[in-house]
From TrEMBL:
Parts of the chain that traverse the membrane: 30-51, 63-91, 103-121, 142-164, 187-210
Family matches, as Pfam families: 7tm_1
Gene Ontology molecular functions: tachykinin receptor activity
Alphabetized InterPro entries for the sequence: GPCR_Rhodpsn (IPR000276), GPCR_Rhodpsn_7TM (IPR017452), Neurokn_rcpt (IPR001681)
The protein's name: (Atlantic silverside) hypothetical protein
Species this protein is from: Menidia menidia (Atlantic silverside)
Keywords: Cell membrane, Disulfide bond, G-protein coupled receptor, Lipoprotein, Membrane, Palmitate, Receptor, Transducer, Transmembrane, Transmembrane helix
Disulfide partners: 98-173
Location relative to the cell: Cell membrane
Entry's family note: Belongs to the G-protein coupled receptor 1 family.
PANTHER family, sorted: G-PROTEIN COUPLED RECEPTOR TKR-1-RELATED (PTHR46925), NEUROMEDIN-K RECEPTOR (PTHR46925:SF1)
Listed GO biological process terms: positive regulation of flagellated sperm motility
Domain of life: Eukaryota
Residue stretches making up the G-protein coupled receptors family 1 profile domain: 42-237
Length: 237
């Protein structure tokens, strides 16, 4: 009888060890709700301001719009699911949403990083080379489409290998990478270079040049002899 009770307790512990107590769930829910509300509604306000006012539709603001959209959608589609999964330790939402859950947030993060990189390059061109033509609306749209396309390609393996499995009498959502460790390692190296190293280098170089130029008091673009002539010609156009 005692052995039976011990077995029942062990099973119960395995079943419930990942479930958070109600007081902790309630405590976590307050800051979590605040963060999600700010992320969703704050970014929606940014999107509305840019789309509702024509004078706000600049190249930089279009990239900000893309950044706000990716952040707001990630908070809206994944934050609540993350909270439920963390609180209960059980995946209730099926395999299809498991794939989306692992795929979309990473896609949004990639898109956000490259949007910030595009903003850095755009600010560099506007400040250091003010006389050179800026991106047109179509070109900006093309860059944004390319950003999302690259983000989807880089995050697709997370969608493809995501699955649900039963583990210790509970269902979990995970990325089941193949046993070919070399391919998996190559993927992570490529992602690290394209998503972290390359954007960091680009933003570091562009903002450093802008900062040094502005700190030195030099008027960007004023180093050439015909600067004022170019400026007058541009104003006439």
């Amino acid at each position: 009888m005692a052995a039976s009770n011990n077995g029942s307790n062990i099973t119960s512990n395995h079943t419930n060890q990942f479930v958070q107590p109600p007081w902790r769930v309630a405590l976590w829910s307050v800051p979590y709700t605040f963060v999600v509300a700010v992320a969703v509604f704050g970014n929606l306000i940014v999107i509305w301001i840019i789309l509702a006012h024509k004078r706000m539709r600049t190249v930089t603001n279009y990239f900000l719009l893309n950044l706000a959209f990716s952040d707001a959608s990630m908070a809206a589609f994944n934050a609540l699911i993350n909270f439920i999964f963390a609180a209960h330790g059980v995946w209730y939402f099926g395999e299809t949403y498991c794939k989306f859950h692992n795929f979309f947030p990473v896609t949004s993060v990639f898109a956000s990083i490259y949007s910030m990189t595009a903003i850095a390059v755009d600010r560099y061109m506007a400040i250091i080379h003010p006389l050179k033509p800026r991106l047109s609306g179509k070109a900006t749209t093309g860059v944004i489409v390319c950003i999302w396309g690259l983000a989807v390609v880089l995050a697709f393996p997370l969608c493809y290998f995501s699955t649900i499995r039963s583990h210790r009498q509970r269902t979990i959502c995970l990325v089941a990478w193949p046993r070919l460790k070399d391919d998996t390692l190559k993927y992570h190296i490529i992602v690290a270079i394209l998503v972290y190293v390359l954007p960091l280098v680009v933003m570091g170089i562009t903002y450093s040049i802008v900062g040094v130029t502005l700190w030195g008091g030099e008027i960007p673009g004023n180093s050439s002899d015909n600067y004022h002539g170019q400026l007058r010609a541009k104003r006439k156009h």
